[in-house]
Amino acid sequence: MKSPATEISPPCDGSGTSAQNPAAARLRRALRWGYDLAVTLAMWGYFTVGFVVLFSPLYLAAAVFSREREIAFQRLNHYFYRGFFRLLKVLVPGIEWSVDRRIADIAGAVVVCNHRSYLDPLLLISLFARHKTIVKHRLFGIPLFGWMLKSAGYIPSNARGALAESMLEQIQALPGYLQKGGVLFVFPEGTRSRDGKLGAFNPGAFKLARRCGVPLAVLAVRRTEKLFRPGKFLFNTALRRGPQVRHLATLAPEPYADRPLADQMDRVRRILLADEARPGAEGKPDPVDPNQEMS
Questions:
Q1: Which of 122, 126, 140, 279 has the fewest CB atoms within 10 Å distance of its CB?
Q2: SS3 of residue 291 by DSSP
Q3: β-strands 216-222, 109-113: how paired?
Q4: Predicted local confidence at residue 52, as pLDDT
Q5: Burial track 15-51 (b if 16+ CB lie within 10 A, e otherwise)
Q6: 3-state SS class at 198
Q7: What pLDDT, in 10s, does the model give residues 36-68?
Q8: Cα–Cα distances in Å, from 18 out to 8, 15, 33, 80?
């Protein structure tokens, strides 16, 4: 009879299942893929069906009855995307979200932020009740959705065709909107980073901040590309350290009023690069529910 001391257990992969059991590993991968797919379908179901069925009547009501249609549409967008991330948090409760509490105090400013994922603009809309942003001009051509973008006062990315008048009107009205506490958020890279590195800046956001005489708030987004990975259709439900949004700095307009625009652009770039290079850059500030009221 063998002594219990001589019994050797097969190595374990950390999940309680033998690492020598490939069938169990395949099953776990299949279950994970199935859950990723189920969550993804639920999220995009909310994004499409939820918009048409649940929120379209509210947008129509705001269009007919609201005295400030633009503000009403911005708030509806804000609540819609708060609901989007709230649903995601319910479906994947293991993800830790981290949003800098100071973001709630940003108002009357142009916000610039790095860009890593399609989720970034949705996340920022969920954080700012009164907001505008610059949107790709082709999205204005989507039925109903394009009407919502225009009614919310979003700015087309270029002045092609019928959008030229809308773009001019929004830029002319922007100083008054910001003075009343609104926020314009812009991704100065213009597109998502494919490798996580900070791309070249377009000067548009910096020109608008200077023209309006308002502060420039610098935010950094992290790990949104881990949750919704570039080139992938599925959400990554295995993620544990989830998206982070940090408020890095607010630059007052006065010190840059008489200096070249490139000085301010370089300053923002150095702030963002320093944040990327800081020890523990993947660390997180105090956890805050991204669905908390930010208005």
A1: 279
A2: coil
A3: parallel
A4: 86
A5: eeeeeeeeeeeeeeeeeeeebbeebbeebeebeeebb
A6: coil
A7: 999 999 999 999 999 889 899 999 999 999 999
A8: 12, 8, 20, 44
Dist CA 197 CA 116 (whole Å): 9
Question: Cα-atom radius of gyration of the chain, to the nearest Å?
Answer: 23
pTM given for the model = 0.85
Domain ranges of the chain: 21-277
Separation between Cα atoms, residue 74 and residue 106, nearest integer Å: 16
CATH topology for 21-277?
A: Glycerol-3-phosphate (1)-acyltransferase (3.40.1130)
Helices (H), 14-144: 22-45, 56-65, 69-91, 119-127
pLDDT digits 0-9 by tens, 122-132: 999 999 999 99
Report helix angle 163-179 to 204-212, nearest 10.
50
Residue 7 pLDDT grade (very low, low, confident, very high; cuts 50, 70, 90): very low
DSSP-derived secondary structure letter, 11: P
295, with CB counted inside 10 A (0-12, 13-18, 19+), is middle
Count of residues for the chain? 295
Which tokens in the block code for residue 245? 């949004």
249 phi/psi in degrees, rounded to 5: -170, 160
Strand 183-186, strand 131-135: pairing: parallel
